Hints:
Layout: E1 3-13, E2 20-26, E3 31-37, H1 39-49, H2 59-69, E4 73-83, E5 86-96, E6 99-105, H3 107-117, E7 121-124, H4 125-131, H5 137-141, H6 155-163, H7 178-182
Parallel strand pairs: 4-7
Antiparallel strand pairs: 1-2, 1-7, 2-3, 4-5, 5-6
Helix pairs in contact: 1-3, 2-3
Amino acid sequence: MSLVEVTIDSIRVSLMSQHRLVILKDGLTDRFLTIWIGPCEADAITWELQEHVSPRPLTHDLLKNAIRDMGGQITSVVISDLKDDIFYARIVVDMGSGRTTEIDSRPSDAIALAVRAKVPILVEDTVMDRAASQPDQEISEEKPAEPVVGDDKLSVFKDFLDTLDLDDIEDDDDSESPRGRRRGL
């Protein structure tokens, strides 16, 4: 079993649903793993990454505290499998005296817990091989576009402006102007 350490590259919002995407990045090979997550889990991850402090423990804080108070220490989280387009994860806990336990988890909850416990997020290499994507080489090597003066994209707007008859515009005080008549002046 080979594990790949990833970092959270970003959390994105789907324009088609209430779901979010967490984008995990393998820093060694520039592969990206995209996992759909719910809005609550996305908020929990974002909240911690932005270092917000809650006056009371949130759910993932509660779990981290419970594990610690029972003598465990979270050492990592592992995105361990992908079956039927569903990702699976485990929270790895050192219970002391050389004893380790793994807790089944949704990846979104495992990641939210990892950012709170400040532990590595790992992905089974087989999962990365099956589900990760790599940026298209042509896109990643493209130079940023330079602004073009007189771009054809603006021609539609220019054509619209050319159709406006600005000679009819007079002072608002003039009751004979189109705007004055609309207001009943």
